[in-house]
Design goal:
Radius of gyration: 26 Å
Strand content: 15-25%
Number of helices: 24
Largest sheet: 8 strands, mixed
Number of domains: 3
Length: 604
Amino acid sequence: MTKPHFQESIENLQTIAENLSPAPSLNSYLSVKTKILEIVSAIPIEQKTRIAIISTFSIQPLDLCLILESAKQGIALEVYVGEYNQIFQETYQLDSGLNQFKPDAVFYFCQFDRLIPHKGVSAIDKPDIEELNKKILDLYHQFRNHHNSLFVFSNFIIPISFPYSNLPSDDLSQSLNNFNQKFNLNFQNLENACVFDLENLAQFHGKGNITHPLLKFSSDLYFSEGFMVEVGKKLATVITSYKSKAKKCLVLDCDNTLWGGIVGESGIDGIRLSDTGPGSEFYELQKRIKSLYNRGVILALNSKNNMTDVLEVLQKHPYMLLKEKDFASIQVNWENKAENMITIANDLNIGLDSMLFLDDDPIQRKLVRDLLPEVKVVELPKNPVTYFQIVQTLTDFETIRLTDEDKKRGLSYAAQKERKVLASKSESFDEYLKSLNTVIEINPADTKEIARLSQLCQRTNQFNLSTKRYTESELKDYLNSSDKKIFSLKSKDIFGDDGIVGLGIVNVDDSTEWKLDSFLVSCRVLGRNIENAFIDYISRMGLKSSVTVLKAEYLPTAKNSQIKTFFERVNFIKKTEQNHKIEFELELTNYKRRTFPGIQVVEN
């Protein structure tokens, strides 16, 4: 099949971006500016993500950095940069460039002293803080009046007045630090909004390097050239997450990656792994990996090794922070590592493009990269002392918001391994399902569930009828709509609580017909009749509302073919097929409730 012209343009954009040096400078970005803008202008606007940057200071060429960093993930951007220091005009005036642009996401960068009348280095007093909070929230609500887009506001960089002084930080620094902390908490309660942690990035980059005095005082360019590039990279991680391009699984080698030495030759006492001295570099690496695990990143092992040797380290080594239970899939054998990678993907029911591979051996890295180009392979230096920094600066696993389900993902996959053990011991599949004692709860969605349901929209690719990506604001609007119904699905069993794992959105604008706008279920719970019980519930709700036909329009992607098979299996009839879209129908007039072994359905 011939690729659409715009897809070739996006791939060309991606190639140019990837061919820049691993640590590109602003000059390297500028060197390809003409070519980049030429390619971007040729891509149809509907194939581009529309991003707006609004600031109280000069911000260009941040737009170019952002375009190139996003291109590395195959995302084409149309970027609008607001008028200089016109954040209120841009937001409040209906005919402003921002409001006419209609962005998919907007990023605000503001200096606190341009939002409130404040001078000097004295503390921000309570009235100032209240005014600052009010102005930011007013901006959010005014923007929200016109757009359902993602709203991102940068926190404030805390100034360091006298870096060589032994005296405590001045009052201004302390009060700004307190404000940032409260500001982060406040934003967690806003729909489709997040904080851009500029202060944290400035700390990592070094606050002495974030501003160039000549540029600051001559052109009001607040960011230095080097820091501009870092901000562009961080902005791109937000967009990557927003566009469902974030990775899900970190796949790790063992010998000379998680610890020093070869355990099969040296034994558990001979490997280098400690909290101090030789081996502490691997301990530091594991600390960073554990942090990713706690944020919902799936971990897996892919190692040429003896399983008994590796398990002994995981279970018994006193400085092994990562334990057997932390790994959702363990492929430790002497097989081809590319084949192991495919096994891991199948084991976890995720795509290869959701995986990132960390291995010290350049031969194994090349093998996986050549045979499985969908997998991102991280280049590692010979000396492992910087491995922890490489993992610390990975931008592939970022998420806009951390939900309860994210925090429990590691436990959820550990429970999945226990289910597989139980399945292997059961005499039949029905016996296995009955022994799980699964309880699913299906309800009309409420506002407390919106953040997680939106996240499911953004991140679920395989078992997803339409792959429509709804924001929190859009889903909230649907809650109050008379022609939409939203259903949430929760699941738990004897091994644990998976939380919210499914979403159904139904168009009910016809009194006798319902049409599934969206139907999706997390891959973690597939294959246990949970998805069957979910569609059965929606069918019965339609029947109770005197609906005679339930329709479902399947929009195929490279990943969601299994949901087409599912609808055929649960007796939906294919009515039309046009432009690769398939419309299914289920006759409800004589529909009978279905029961499923081992599943208790709690419904409202």
